[in-house]
Amino acid sequence: VIWRYDGKKPDTLGPNTRLYKWIPQNDLLGHPKTKAFITHGGTNGIYEAIYHGIPMVGLPMFADQPDNIAHMKTKGAAVRLDFNTISSTDLLNALKTVINDPLYKENTMKLSRIHHDQPMKPLDRTVFWIEFVMRHKGAKHLWPAALDLTWVQYHSLDVIGFLLACVATATFVITKCVLFCCRKFLKTGKKKKRE
């Protein structure tokens, strides 16, 4: 077990666990003896695990992590654990599941094959687009139209202002109608009392 950990060494650490302050995660996931990956579910870690075909145990905490782990669980490439209620038994069972159940490895390898199946390598694609922009003098035809909008148009402040004016006008008209009706009924009620 290789664990990225920065702090005092836990007293209950097993003899087969090695602690490191920093680990080159991508290299570790690419090692042929790597069987499972315990992750918080960050995007980079997910992509690195998919790239190398490593099943995951997810402990998402915030932001995009719960969704990332949910997607991997749906694809059959991960087991999700709740960070707030996890026990050592839960973690052990999850690890045994992703290591011993061949479906997790098969599903992750399927995702890896899909990820690797590209018409050109990423570096070649990057070089192509850099040269494309250079050949076309900045490739202004690819620039978003938003660059030509004013600040007010870009943030739709004119539309928001119009909608707020409509809401204010409707509120004013409804309030005046309600007040008019209340006054009419009050005058009618007073006239009936006098009679």
Automatic annotation (TrEMBL):
It is a single-pass membrane protein. It is found in: Endoplasmic reticulum membrane; Membrane. It catalyses: glucuronate acceptor + UDP-alpha-D-glucuronate = acceptor beta-D-glucuronoside + UDP + H(+). GO terms for molecular function: glucuronosyltransferase activity. It comes from the Eukaryota. Its EC number is 2.4.1.17. GO terms for cellular component: endoplasmic reticulum membrane. It holds the Pfam family UDPGT. The chain crosses the membrane at residues 159-182. This is UDP-glucuronosyltransferase.
